[in-house]
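pipeline stage [seq->struct] | target=Zinc finger CGNR domain-containing protein | organism=Streptomyces pseudogriseolus | residues=208
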Amino acid sequence: MGAAPQAPRTRVTARARDLRFDAGSLSLNLVATVGRRPVGPVERMGDAERLAAWCRGVGLTPAPGYAADALLRALHSVRDAAYDIASSLLDGHHPSPASVDLVNALAAGEPPAPRLELTADGLRPAPGSDLLTEDALLSAVARDLITLVSDESRRKRLTMCASEVCRMLYLNPASGRPRQWCSMRRCGNTAKAAAHRRRRAATDGNRP
């Protein structure tokens, strides 16, 4: 019996550790904080600084005094559940009951309602109305995932990057041509360059 094929070997560069905010939804942007899942997962949100950067990138503002370590652990847990659930829509596996229970439990918390303030210059969001407790922030992620799963049009747009190294989950645009790659500038160009090298090698190999 032959040996199992080996996954592609790639260097873990600074770019591979970049946070991604182009997955098309809040919950998928959280899932994308792990890169290169099939060949060797790369943690992109592993400390308080990266957590703060991710929150800024997705437009969530934790209330002052939040426990970064605890929130990070909680987001890692819901991230695993979100990946389990979202990927099941593509490969047909049954997500773990624990994943579903966790998402449902987190979604049960009510995020605070945004408020307006009337000033001499007109209306504006009330100061602090965008601040989220840890529970509210986790609820926002869980509710986004449930909305994605519940919306047939969004489910149909869910796809996985064609790169064997990347396999990022993302939503294709509602209109226009579906994307094969999570990003043409990233995986698309890498795949094109690899295909060019293979064609050139084959041509060189056929020369007398």
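stage status: PASS
auto-comment: The longest helix spans residues 68-91. The CA atoms of residues 13 and 42 lie 10 Å apart.
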